[in-house]
């Protein structure tokens, strides 16, 4: 979104904060992104809270006369928040579904999530996925789906190679340090970490991030296991700078079947050797290119760490740097923007087609995708507004972080 904000107005609609009264807080990020945070009165059920949030979003869009915009949705669960935009307007010129995870397979996922995703597929003009594994699934549900594996802000994480001062809460931990940052939840292989840490008490395991959906009682414990809590994005390079190996200790379960960890290129940009369990989107391409060491069980995980600590990783890092050069956020945004503009153009052209058969679709769009036409007709039924000049569109995002 920060890349989009260089040339467009970007409104980032956050998840609600529950308290007293209903109002919308507006802040402008230094990047230019306008962050809108709804404050909703506590005590309502999920449906009522979403209805109140939708009312705040709709009022803002009308008050500020936001038109000819791209609606960018990160989670199907928040689809009801966008309902007034489609029903009463101003409707989006293009709808993007940015699918990073198979949320319906996460522990505690609401049962209605799959149905809402089905509805979102019906509204979306283009679908982006956060990796290849999830793209293989979503392309069966939408015929304009495109994979965009995790990009990385190389310059930010490369600061770790410059010898940053070690943070105070980590400086007292002896080496070798093996680190992980991210949400510690059902994707985290607690049995693997517990076993390897017990085998190698001289290795120090450092974990940064919140603990979610895992009981504190179930977490691996030991003198060589350290939980340092949540850290800001800006703080991560300083921690990485003093790790000897970075870890991706993910369990193999429903929640990890489709993940594409953003940490993989971030760790590599920091210049730290990486050891991962056998997650599909880590194996391809990082494992296949012999940049990340892959392990399928505790024995292999231990051996891979031991090797990473013992050998010179310069050649591996040089190959990683060549791969990272192709993963900038600028390049990713350019690819996404091109697909958005193409989808907007196709919709405007299809609106002029009266005979919805394969031949007419092919003449207009160069495609035989009759489902595109069906989806466009549904969108027109909810008064979708196509812009006169697609390149001048705004971007509005609905997110659930």
UniProtKB/TrEMBL annotation:
Keywords: Transferase. The keyword DNA-binding does not apply. GO terms for molecular function: transferase activity. The keyword Ligase does not apply. Pfam families: Glyco_trans_1_4. PANTHER family: GLYCOSYLTRANSFERASE. This is Glycosyltransferase involved in cell wall biosynthesis. It comes from Deinococcus yavapaiensis KR-236.
């Amino acid at each position: 979104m920060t890349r989009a904000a260089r040339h467009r107005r970007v409104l980032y609609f956050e998840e609600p904060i529950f308290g007293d009264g209903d109002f919308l807080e507006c802040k402008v990020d230094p990047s230019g992104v306008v962050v809108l945070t709804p404050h909703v009165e506590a005590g309502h059920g999920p449906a009522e809270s979403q209805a109140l949030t939708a009312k705040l979003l709709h009022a803002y869009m009308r008050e500020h006369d936001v038109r000819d915009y791209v609606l960018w949705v990160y989670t199907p669960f928040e689809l009801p928040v966008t309902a007034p935009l489609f029903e009463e307007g101003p409707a989006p010129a293009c709808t993007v579904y940015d699918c990073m995870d198979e949320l319906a397979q996460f522990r505690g996922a609401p049962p209605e999530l799959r149905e809402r995703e089905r509805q979102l597929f019906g509204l979306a003009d283009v679908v982006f996925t956060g990796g290849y594994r999830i793209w293989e699934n979503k392309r069966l549900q939408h015929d304009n789906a495109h994979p965009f594996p995790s990009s990385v802000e190389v310059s930010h994480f490369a600061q770790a190679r410059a010898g940053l001062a070690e943070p105070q809460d980590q400086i007292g931990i002896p080496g070798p340090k093996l680190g992980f940052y991210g949400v510690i939840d059902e994707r985290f292989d607690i049995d693997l970490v517990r076993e390897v840490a017990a085998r190698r008490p001289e290795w120090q395991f450092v974990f940064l991030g919140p603990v979610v959906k895992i009981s504190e009682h179930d977490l691996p414990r030991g003198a060589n296991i350290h939980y340092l809590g949540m850290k800001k994005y800006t703080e991560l390079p300083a921690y990485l700078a003093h790790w000897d190996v970075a870890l991706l200790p993910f369990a193999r379960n429903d929640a990890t079947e489709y993940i594409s960890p953003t940490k993989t290129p971030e760790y590599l940009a920091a210049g730290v050797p990486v050891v991962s369990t056998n997650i599909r989107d880590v194996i391809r391409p990082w494992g296949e290119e012999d940049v990340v060491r892959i392990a399928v069980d505790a024995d292999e995980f231990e051996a891979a760490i031991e090797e990473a600590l013992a050998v010179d990783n310069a050649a591996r890092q040089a190959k990683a740097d060549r791969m990272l050069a192709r993963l900038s956020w600028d390049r990713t945004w350019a690819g996404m923007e091109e697909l958005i503009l193409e989808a907007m153009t196709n919709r405007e052209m299809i609106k002029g087609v009266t005979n919805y058969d394969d031949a007419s679709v092919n003449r207009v769009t160069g495609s035989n995708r009759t489902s595109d036409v069906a989806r466009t007709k549904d969108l027109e039924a909810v008064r979708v507004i196509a812009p006169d000049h697609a390149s001048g569109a705004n971007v509005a995002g609905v997110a659930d972080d």
